[in-house]
From TrEMBL:
InterPro entries in the record: 23S_rRNA-intervening_sequence, 23S_rRNA_IVS_sf
Top-rank lineage group of the source organism: Bacteria
PANTHER family: FOUR HELIX BUNDLE PROTEIN
Protein name, entry field: Four helix bundle protein
SUPFAM superfamilies, per database record: IVS-encoded protein-like
């Protein structure tokens, strides 16, 4: 991981939080279905960003960022569902929600820049 790449660093840190959240849901809440869903989508964001660093072409790079945005959006959905179904507290939600919002903003900006420079 390139420590100069803010998107890689933040997505990796977010993935770690998601792994811990999933473990909490499985251990403390005895919830497995939603915990696996958020684990899959929440860690996919960072994996796709990591893949994009070594994309084969500009269109491949853009494609990977598009998919990362979709995964981030899905993760936000699962976080809201976990909060609204009382699997996580509002405090837990408010602790992690800014991270996914920030990732979505960074991804959107990166994608916009990549597309503008692709002409």
């Amino acid at each position: 991981m390139n420590s100069d790449n803010i998107l890689e660093v933040k997505s990796y840190a977010f993935a770690l939080r998601i792994v811990k959240l999933s473990r909490y849901l499985q251990d403390e809440q005895k919830e497995t279905i939603l915990s696996k869903q958020i684990l899959r989508s929440g860690t996919a964001v960072g994996a796709l960003i990591s893949e994009s660093v070594y994309a084969q072409s500009k269109p491949d790079f853009i494609s990977k960022l598009h998919i990362a945005i979709k995964e981030a959006n899905e993760t936000q959905y699962w976080l809201n569902l976990l909060k609204d179904s009382d699997y996580i507290t509002v405090k837990m939600f408010e602790s992690i929600e800014p991270d996914i919002i920030e990732l979505l903003k960074l991804l959107t900006t990166s994608l916009k820049t990549a597309k503008e420079n692709n002409v």
